[in-house]
Structure formats: structure tokens, C-alpha cells
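ok so i was messing around last nite and threw this chain in just to see what happens. nothing serious, just curious
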Amino acid sequence: MAKLIKIKTPLNDDTVLQLKAGDNVLISGYLYTGRDAAHKRLVDLIEEGKELPIDVNGQIIYYVGPAPAKPGHACGSAGPTTSYRMDPYAPYLLDLGLKGMIGKGLRSKEVIDSMIKNKAVYFGAVGGAAALISKSIVKSETICYADLGTEAIHKFFVKDFPAIVIIDAFGNNLYEIEPPKYAVE
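result:
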């Protein structure tokens, strides 16, 4: 049985290296959000040698475009988006100290290699539980790229945000190690 681990952001190497593929986590602290268009803008700034509008060192980026908030709520439904769309950009951010990513689906070999090199972790969030996940989001503010609407970069304050370690900092991948356990002989 996978263990349940409470972690706080920002993450450091000690925390990340203790996490194993399959661990269930509850994340508290700040997360940044970002999807493809925001990631492209961040990488364009990196390639131009310019400063980023956020400091990604030790941070987690949640691949989400949250729905508008209902009155009295920090945000609306906030389910993860498919992560592979961020794969061309993730190694740039990992090289700057990004420690975690939350999304759904597979990651490329390049991203996994960069995670190992930079001691980072990939968490999965359950897409079908978007409304439930949003209850963990206590506060939300738009940080930059407001012109992207829900795909702007937001800063969430979360309490006990549920996620699963899909790929740990050693490259162990839940999508690869679990299926053989259930294979029919």
C-alpha cells in the first residue's frame, strides 16, 4: 500500500528525494499554474536571457486552466491538463530549479532525464475530480499573462491538495511499474 505523505512548498532536494513513484501526497503551500501558451512565453524569455515573471526555484507548476470562481470560492473547477504539451518547455524550467509538476499522462524521455538531473518529481492529479480538487485551493491570484484568460499564470495557495507521485526523481515511473503487477498470465 502506498503511503500518504504531507509535503509543503517550496520543495527542496531532501523532500523530493524521499518521494517514490506511487506515493500519495497532500500538498500545502503555493503552486503556480501554467499551460502551453504560458510555458512558451516563459521559455521565450529564458532564450532571450530575460528575467522570468515568477521564480520557479523550488516550486511546483500545476498544468491547469481553472474555471472561473463562483462567489465565495478561490477558483472554479481545476482539473489537470495533459502534460506532454509542456514537454518541450519543462527541461528549461527544471534547469532553473523547478522541483515539481502536476498534470496527467505520460512524459517524454527528455523530461524524465531532466527530472533525474535536476532532482524533480512529476505528480498526477485526477482529472475526473476537478471540482473536488478545487476545494483544496484556498486562494488564487493572477500573476502574469492575464491576456491568456484561464491559462494565465496563477498563484494558488493550497491546503492538502491530493496528488500521486507518478515519476520520482530517480526516474521510477508508476505508468511502467504498476501494469505488470496486474497482468493476466
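not much to say yet. The first strand starts at residue 4 and ends at 8.
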